[in-house]
Amino acid sequence: MPDTLYLVIPCYNEQEVLPETARRLTDKLGGMIASGAISPQSRVLLVDDGSKDATWSLIEQLHAQNPLFSGLKLAHNRGHQNALIAGLMTAKEHCDMSISMDADLQDDVDAIDRFVAAYYDGCDVVYGVRSSRAKDTVFKRSTAVGYYKFLKLMGVEIVENHADYRLMSRRALEALSEYHEVNLFLRGIVPLIGFKSTVVTYERSERFAGESKYPLKKMLAFAIDGITSFSVKPIRFITFLGVLIFGVSILSLLWFLFLKLFGRTVTGWATLMGSIWALGGVQLLCLGVIGEYVGKLYQEAKHRPRFVAEKILNDTDTK
Fold first, then answer.
1. How far is the C-alpha of 215 from the C-alpha of 314, rounded, in Å?
2. Which of 103, 209, 212, 300 is the most buried if burial means most Cβ atoms within 10 Å?
3. Closest CA to 198 of 125, 137, 260
């Protein structure tokens, strides 16, 4: 009996693309079930992250028309990462392996066959990695490359050019469930799990329809979460900066005393004001970085649930 696969797809206001996504995934999973690659109990789990459009209505229609589709409706919009972990933890009770992907059809569905083949070869985690960024704008390409390099510089273990298109075995999902942090950055958490892993490269397509759910503001916030959730190097850099500024101030004081002893006065109003503004800016920057960490501690200490499920549509028995 082949193993059961669950595709976990977070959806937020995806009514424009969902019908085409459902059509392509029906063809893909239907073919894999027919060939014996996956179990007939395999499903597509669509997670509605508090959408404001007709996304949930479409999910209900898909479930009613085709048992291949399951649905999970969150009671409130919690963001992509929380919707994803909600789907994965729900799928964990029913599947042998799961594949997470976006609803916008930018992830190549034909790569699913290679994901599953790697799973049968003994891999618990399979990362989908973009083979090229040629379709990106120069700005997006340069910032993405710089971001991955900066994360590695900060000591974060991460797979370059990998988003959230990945396969995880049930064993890996069980291990993931032991990570309870509220500030989720799954691209950094999954590599910490360990287990045997591999990479599948694919060509990322343009969004089929609708608008991106990750404008620049959200991308910047996500980038900051990735750094502050997995590295304390920014805090250590502040300590180094404080020592450096203190050392410079001592040298400056000695220099001014030397000039005073030889009868030379120091006017330098512009230099003085510039130094005050510079030090004030550095102090505010340092407070901001520390505040990011304090804020995360505050969120983690409250230990609020990462998501609340309002409805679940699934006709399979728990494994």
1. 32
2. 103
3. 125
Length of the chain: 319
Helix (H, G, I), strand (E, B) or coil at 48: strand
- Which sign does the torsion angle of CA 76, 82, 87, 89 carry? negative
Position 256 confidence tier, pLDDT thresholds 50, 70, 90 = low
Instruction: Kindly report the pTM of this predicted structure.
Output: 0.73
Number of C-alpha atoms within 13 angstroms, CB side, residue 254? 6
Neighbours of 274 (CB within 10 A): 11
Pairwise CA distance, residues 302 & 135, whole Å: 42
Long-range contact set of residues 136-139: C-beta below 8 Å, sequence gap at least 24: none
**CATH for 5-213+306-313?**
3.90.550.10
Residue 122: the pLDDT is: 93
Q: Which amino acid is at 299?
A: Q
pLDDT tens per residue, range 183-197: 788 888 899 898 999
- Report whether 115 contacts 126 (CB < 8 A): yes
